[in-house]
Amino acid sequence: MTVQIQTRDRITLVTLDRPDVRNAVDAATAQALHAAFLDFERDDAADVAVFHGAGGHFCAGWDLQAGARLLAEGVSPQALAESLDFNAGTPHPAGPMGPSRLQLSKPVIAAVSGAAVAGGMELALWCDMRVMESDAYFGVYCRRFGVPLIDGGTVRLPRLIGMGHAMDLILTGRKVEADEALRIGLCNRVVPTGQALAAAMNLARELAAFPQATLRADRLSAMAQDGLPLTGALLQEWAGGRECLAEALQGAARFSAGGGRHGKF
Questions:
Q1: Share of the chain above pLDDT 70, in %
Q2: For the whole model, what pTM was predicted?
Q3: How far apart are CA 131 and CA 136, in angstroms?
Q4: How many Cβ atoms are within 10 Å of 259's Cβ, its own excluded?
Q5: Strand locations in 123-253, DSSP E?
Q6: Residue 91 carries which DSSP code?
Q7: pLDDT tens string 12-46
Q8: Residue 42's CB: how many other CB atoms inside 10 A?
Q9: Is 134 in contact with 121 (CB distance < 8 Å)?
Q10: Based on the number of CB atoms within 10 Å of its own CB, is 122 exposed (0-12), middle (13-18) or buried (19 or more)?
């Protein structure tokens, strides 16, 4: 199995497990990742997912050795495109790297160690938050080989860090180490080497402890407002928030009874 799944305390841990190729993703692994995150989405016992790679690396991107074998077998670019687009048009489309086109209702946290490059960087960008080890790195390393960003990299990167920084990384393909990633907003936390998974699990437990209806409504509003006029975005925010007013009243009662005072979580 190239993808391992565990559920702990309302947290789903998804492990990409191909350490011999730095967790590069071939077609079978992409389908397994897609299925794993769909299962997480449908699991009422799971509120947050943590995504990491086994063996010291997050993900080195698309498996170029598999691509080379396809070329040797005479697979045409059109046939390759069709093979990478294996369930286009469905309610839960998959990207070449697996889950990159899914829009989940629950958060996913990436625990980034070692390399998160090319398609692996795109998988990290797909996550809501990124916890990065101090010696880990990002980079559009596929620039060297003419492999395009087709798992959201050209969309999510400018939205996350701005067009100027994004163009620098997309066009040059250069290595981005943890300190720069934190400075430009490419990651959310930097932790010592070997601690990304533990830190991401702790963060996931914090998120899972909150009232979930409002957390998910606020998350969805923040994600869906991009590109909307202000009035439309505010109306959309209200439409989601009004469904959570019962949870809000329960929270007010907890506060009145003494819980959560003075900013205590």
A1: 93
A2: 0.92
A3: 10
A4: 10
A5: 129-133, 137-139, 176-177, 189-191
A6: S
A7: 999 999 999 999 999 999 999 999 999 999 999 99
A8: 9
A9: no
A10: buried
Beta-carbon neighbour count of residue 178 at 10 Å?
21
Contact 50, 109 (CB under 8 A): yes
Could you give the CA distance from residue 221 to residue 235 in angstroms, rounded to a whole number? 10
Q: 99 near 41, Cβ under 8 Å?
A: no
What does each C-alpha distance from 215 to 60, 226, 265 come to in angstroms? 32, 18, 14
Query: pLDDT value at position 253?
Result: 85
pLDDT tens by residue, 107-146: 999 999 999 999 999 999 999 999 999 999 999 999 999 9
174 torsion bin: left (phi>0), alpha (psi -120 to 50), beta (else): beta
Average pLDDT in the 93-117 region?
96
For tokens 């967790």, the residue is: 23
SS3 category, 133:
strand
**How far apart, in whole angstroms, are the C-alpha atoms of residue 46 and residue 12?**
6
Question: Which secondary-structure segment (H or E) carries 51?
Answer: strand 48-53
Residue 90 backbone zone (phi > 0: left; psi -120 to 50: alpha; other: beta): beta
